[in-house]
Amino acid sequence: ARPWRDLVAVAELERGWVTRVDLGARSLAVYDTPTGIHVSLALCNHGGADLCDGFFDGHVIECPLHQGAFDVRDGRPVSAPATRPMKLFETRVRDGMVQIRA
Ligand code: FES
Predict the structure, then answer these.
(1) What is the pLDDT of residues 32-75, one digit of tens each?
(2) How far is CA 37 from the centre of its chain?
(3) CA distance 90 to 78
(4) What spacing in Å lies between the alpha carbon of 92 and ligand 1's midpoint?
(5) What is the phi/psi pair of residue 32, to 5°?
(6) Measuring from atom 3 of ligand 1, which residue has the nearest CA?
(7) How far does residue 43's CA lie from ligand 1's centre (Å)?
(8) Which of 34, 52, 86, 98 is the most exposed place for a label (fewest CB within 10 A)?
């Protein structure tokens, strides 16, 4: 497995919302949900919009471009035109830091 690496401090996340974090050349979306933190690629797999500019509610991120939506807990598409699961990263919190395997 890939090593865990620090991504962002939990304290820097917007509560109950989505926060964009750049990791090298990639932009990631970090979701603060009522049941934990989840991390995906920021690019929507439908048409490449930035999910961090979308609307986030509970566990569902809605894309700003065509309103496709995904459940951030497992990445599954929950609203058209999104049809493919989004890429999620294995995520944990250690000592106040969000860590992912990447
Ligand atoms: Fe996200 Fe089309 S780009 S739904």
Answers:
(1) 999 999 999 999 999 999 999 999 999 999 999 999 999 999 99
(2) 8
(3) 21
(4) 27
(5) -95, 110
(6) 47
(7) 9
(8) 34
DSSP letter string, 51-90: GGGSEEETTEEE-TTT--EEETTT--EEETT--SPPPEE-
Say how far apart CA 59 and CA 70 lie, in whole Å: 8
Measured in angstroms, how far is the CA atom of residue 3 from the centroid of ligand 1? 31
What tokens does 6 get? Answer: 């620090």
pTM: 0.96
DSSP 8-state symbol, 4: E
Ligand 1 atom at shortest distance from the alpha carbon of 47: 3
Q: How many whole angstroms separate alpha carbon 100 and alpha carbon 102?
A: 6
User: Domains in the chain and their CATH numbers?
Assistant: 4-101 (2.102.10.10)
